[in-house]
Amino acid sequence: MKRVAVFASGSGSNFQSIADSITKGISTHFELCGLVASKPDIQALDRAHRLRLPSVVLKASDFENEALFANALLDTTTNWNTDIIVLAGYLTKLPAIFIERFHGIILNIHPSLLPKFGGKGFYGLKVHDAVLQAGETESGCTVHVVDGEYDKGRILAQLKLDVHPNESAEELAKRVLQLEHELFPRVVEQIAQYGVPE
Ligand code: GRF
Fold first, then answer.
1. pLDDT tens digits for the chain (198 residues)?
2. Which residues are catalytic?
3. Which of 23, 163, 176, 194 has the most CB atoms around its CB within 10 Å?
């Protein structure tokens, strides 16, 4: 049984979908060991509380330097005996030393069909605005392995949808988020069961 730590910065609906997949018995090869929040007062923390999971707020700017922030992340995840890190709407750049420690087993979800509409600055509605501006006929979501660069690591899985004529960025975001809730638990389960494919 693998132990998965979730990192989040916002509502945590992806975190919830992963937790629900365990409750429903769909995911059976991992358990959640805790939530790392990048700031206080986010909805993801309330969800952790309701799920009776340990949670901690580690805000990068509260630390004097990046090394101390990295130590706090490493201490927390080590104490939780973490095997896999899942970034579910986590908006803080992870220190290189942390990525090195969990090399190949940090997963992220992004609300576009990477490599399109990824990288620094592409987050939240900005992604969907850019998709609509570009006149794309399809969009979707991507789960990828995290390396040092934003949204650049190896792609593990994607789900697609057709962009509706005249839909707003908000509508598109909502539909893509539904796909995320389907895709992310499935990929986490696969990685927990079989590891990251060669
Ligand atoms: C999702 O759209 C995800 O793709 C992106 O941030 C959003 C997080 O939503 N990285 P939530 O906090 O899981 O509801």
1. 999 999 999 999 999 999 999 999 999 999 999 999 999 999 999 999 999 999 999 999 999 999 999 999 999 999 999 999 999 999 999 999 999 999 999 999 999 999 999 988 898 999 999 999 999 999 999 999 998 776 778 999 999 999 998 999 999 999 999 999 999 999 999 999 999 877
2. 110
3. 176
Superfamily of domain 2-194 in CATH is: Formyl transferase, N-terminal domain (3.40.50.170)
Ligand 1 pocket test: pick from 161, 177, 178, 187 the residue with the most ligand atoms within 8 Å of its Cβ. 177
Label the pairing between strands 55-57 and 138-145: unpaired
Q: Which atom of ligand 1 is nearest to the CA of 10?
A: 12
Q: What is the pTM of this model?
A: 0.95
Dist. CA 180 → ligand 1 center (Å) = 8
CA distance 195 to 192: 6
